[in-house]
Design goal:
The chain is built from eight helices and ten strands. The protein is α/β, with parallel strands linked by helices and 292 residues long. Strands 1-2-3-4-5-8-9-10 form an eight-stranded mixed barrel. A two-stranded antiparallel ribbon has the order 6-7. The termini are far apart.
């Protein structure tokens, strides 16, 4: 017993990355590692609203879910609008998402500022219409990896400032995966944004589905904390995507369904393929407005 206690103390003294390394090399279960690192919460996101009945099934596994304010990437319509009360009825927390532009859509710093102002106004309008309270955090979906061009940082700063003036919080969904720029230089999009934020307070929802540090498509009671992603300041970590990206998930391929997607255990029909997230809060966007 005393040896186990000493081992636990040593584990607790490790950094999040060292904890993940311990998990990978020792075979320790993700739940045990999460308990050592602190309580975390499991969430899901997907582009298409899965249906009212699905939320009852998903709530048995997840504490929060993604909620789009505009059309998600690769889609032309948003099927989430009007579903906030249904999520509240299931006592689900929120991960509020707004689909941002690609760098190629921003033609100049001036146009980027104009687009940032317009997109922020749209996000604020939709958030109010959906009933999200002041202080709720909206995560701007940035699909590009690596270092962002200056015009994108101009867009992002404008977006964040406009949300702050409207008493909403700004966040980003971005890559936490290092990109090799050559000559020994690597950069993760999250770090690049943080280095260019000035004094703005941003929340970070990062994706890193590479195994390790990701455990793959697993739904433990206590998931690994966001800091175990490799981004110590992350508030939310997307550790599995559907469909799985084969170039990053070879070491955890067996955790995914044979079709390459990730499904919740209660979804026997495999109707809703999901992305899986862990967070430091059961309501990462503070979108519940005090609801129990």
């Amino acid at each position: 017993m005393w040896r186990a206690s000493i081992a636990l103390l040593i584990l607790l003294a490790l950094s999040p990355i060292a904890i993940v390394s311990f998990f990978v090399h020792s075979g320790t279960s993700p739940s045990a590692v999460a308990r050592a690192a602190g309580s975390t919460y499991l969430g899901f996101d997907l582009n298409t609203y899965p249906g009212d009945a699905a939320l009852s099934v998903l709530r048995k596994t997840f504490s929060f879910g993604g909620y789009w304010l505009n059309a998600p990437p690769g889609t032309k319509q948003n099927t989430w609008l009007g579903k906030r009360q249904r999520m509240l009825s299931e006592k689900l927390g929120f991960l509020i998402l707004f689909n941002g532009p690609q760098s190629g859509e921003l033609k100049s710093p001036t146009q980027a500022v104009s687009r940032g102002t317009a997109d922020a106004a749209s996000a604020i309008s939709m958030a109010k219409k959906e009933g999200f309270p002041p202080g709720a955090i909206m995560f701007l979906d940035i699909e590009e990896g690596g270092r962002l061009p200056p015009k994108y940082h101009a867009y992002l700063r404008t977006w964040a400032d406009a949300l702050a003036r409207a008493r909403y919080g700004a966040g980003v969904y971005c890559s936490g995966m290092p990109v090799n720029e050559g000559q020994g230089v690597t950069i993760a999009t999250a770090d690049d944004i943080r280095n260019n934020r000035a004094k703005r307070d941003l929340a970070y929802f990062i994706y890193n589905d590479a195994c390790p540090p990701s455990p793959g498509c697993v739904v433990p009671h206590n998931p690994l904390p966001p800091s175990a992603s490799g981004i110590p300041y992350a508030a939310v970590w997307q550790f599995a995507q559907s469909p799985r990206r084969k170039e990053f998930t070879a070491h955890c391929a067996a955790t995914y369904n044979p079709d390459g997607n990730c499904y919740v255990p209660g979804d026997t029909a495999h109707a809703w393929f999901l992305d899986l997230n862990s967070a430091t809060s059961p309501d990462p966007s503070n979108g519940r407005d005090g609801a129990p």
